[in-house]
Specification:
With 477 residues, this protein is of the alpha/beta class. The chain has 18 helices and ten strands.
Length: 477
């Protein structure tokens, strides 16, 4: 998991291991520890351990300062720019726990966008704790989740349940958030398939301080790749002194410091104050003036993250390697040179489409993917990639047709069945959805659980089985 437990957190570690030992049915923690150190855990066992060692402490509109900057400075600027284009916004809550953070973001967007029905808003929320994700998907919360939350939020976006002191979030807000399992230490991201690419804003708050320095470095690098140029990374003051790569510019507001992806310069720019940049100011505050002074969190006492060099020490001309390193611009140059020599290289054209999709340039991605399909119409993976891009653009009927073409070419293409199941589910076609999910499960039975699925960008067969079962579409459903 990459979790770090320095001496001051040993009591917390001890409590977590003791709780896990009880669930694993060991007589004591020592026996459990011996087993953990000598065994290879299944995914299910791993998630049990994660549920006891990860912190699930959160509440609605936590760390109001950064959310206020998001609501009054960043989102209005994005909305203004995108209103004249294709009206889309993409936000990722990296460690969403029980869902309060992504739902808070959804509420902000609902307040900021009176015509939200005309927008394509994607809010991806991921976590390593499957139990927390299950609670997030239910959308039911007790009073403790609303501490420090303005009363109008409860009145406008929640309804009482039959359980005493329980509130359920509005179905409209709940439908704006897509929850999914993701292990920051091992899973692959950014990924078009997993919807963790081309993000405008990433919230990674109260996460990095629990990681080893090495893992924190790796996570930062991957999150940078998952942002569009000019995208924002929001971390917590408790995450310590964040030494990000030179492509992140620290932007200091009066309330907090946020980090902006800047691909125009390799050198760190001076830290400006956006209070002096009127074009980024919101026209209407979302929050009323605070009635109490904000709480300033001290930096966590841990080793500051050291920035890693993203480019290899020696030049590398391999486009695949450059793509894997997130050097999209350089990779695109290499591929364009190859394509100029061979316009029918379907694999090169497809990689170019992935590069543009990961940068959020969907029109360009679509154009190159269509050329790849034209170059080789018999590759089912190309039709699946085309479907992913079309889905991102909101072209659902066309995406469905592309997935059906993929299955016409290869009835055993697991990811096409899975994607069609998701699309059918989103359209309320639950019988059709269940059929595709069961087909996917049947095909997955022939795979080794640790095998990486074709065209999946690192997704294993075992993980996809668990995802489908977790959605309630297991063989017994």
């Amino acid at each position: 998991m990459g979790l770090s437990f320095p001496k001051e957190r040993w009591r917390e570690l001890s409590l977590g291991i003791n709780a896990a030992a009880q669930e694993f049915e060991f007589a004591d923690a020592a026996s459990c520890i011996k087993w953990l150190l000598s065994s290879s855990l299944t995914n299910y066992q791993f998630e049990i351990l994660a549920s006891h060692l990860t912190i699930g402490e959160t509440y609605f509109f936590r760390e109001m300062n950064s959310l206020q900057i998001l609501a009054e400075r960043i989102l209005p600027k994005l909305i203004s720019l995108r209103r004249e284009e294709d009206r889309h916004l993409r936000i990722w809550s990296v460690a969403c726990s029980t869902g309060e953070e992504p739902y808070s973001v959804a509420i902000l967007l609902d307040k900021l966008l009176p015509d939200i029905q005309d927008w394509r808003v994607t809010i991806t929320a991921t976590d390593i704790n499957s139990r927390s994700l299950q609670k997030a998907g239910e959308g039911i919360y007790g009073e403790w989740s609303f501490r420090s939350t303005p009363s109008w939020i409860r009145q406008e976006y929640f309804r009482t349940t039959q359980e005493k002191n329980q509130l359920k979030i509005s179905p409209r807000i709940k439908g704006m958030v897509n929850f999914a399992y993701l292990n920051l230490a091992t899973d692959t991201y950014p990924s078009l398939l997993k919807n963790t690419n081309a993000m405008d804003v990433i919230l990674c708050r109260n996460v990095l301080m629990y990681f080893t320095s090495e893992l924190a470095n790796r996570v930062i690098r991957r999150l940078r790749r998952a942002l569009v140029d000019g995208g924002w990374l929001i971390v917590s003051p408790m995450d310590g002194a964040l030494a990000l790569s030179s492509r992140f510019a620290p932007i200091t507001f009066s309330e907090a410091t946020l980090y902006k992806k800047d691909d125009k310069s390799r050198s760190s720019p001076p830290t400006p104050s956006l209070d002096t940049e009127p074009e980024l100011l919101a026209l209407t505050p979302v929050f009323p003036p605070a009635t109490q002074p904000g709480i300033v969190c001290a930096e966590a006492e841990w080793q500051p993250i050291q920035s890693e060099v993203e480019s290899p020490e020696t030049p590398n001309d391999d486009p695949l390697t450059l793509y894997a390193q997130g050097q999209y611009g350089e990779a695109a140059k290499r591929i364009l040179a190859l394509v100029s020599l061979n316009e029918k290289d379907a694999n090169a054209l497809a990689l170019l489409a992935r590069i543009y999709a990961n940068q959020g340039k969907l029109a360009e991605a679509l154009g190159w993917c269509e050329k790849a399909v034209a170059a080789d119409k018999c590759l089912p993976g190309l039709h699946c990639l085309l479907a992913n891009i079309l889905q991102e653009q909101g072209e659902i009927p066309a995406a469905v047709q592309s997935l059906k073409r993929a299955l016409y070419l290869d009835q055993t293409f697991v990811l096409a069945h899975f994607a069609l199941g998701n699309l059918s589910r989103e359209q309320g076609q639950f019988i059709e959805s269940k059929k595709h999910f069961l087909n996917a499960l049947s095909l997955l039975g022939a795979f080794d659980q640790e095998a990486i699925l074709p065209e999946s960008e690192g997704l294993t067969a075992g993980r996809l089985v668990e995802i489908i079962n977790g959605m309630g579409y297991g063989a017994s459903a």
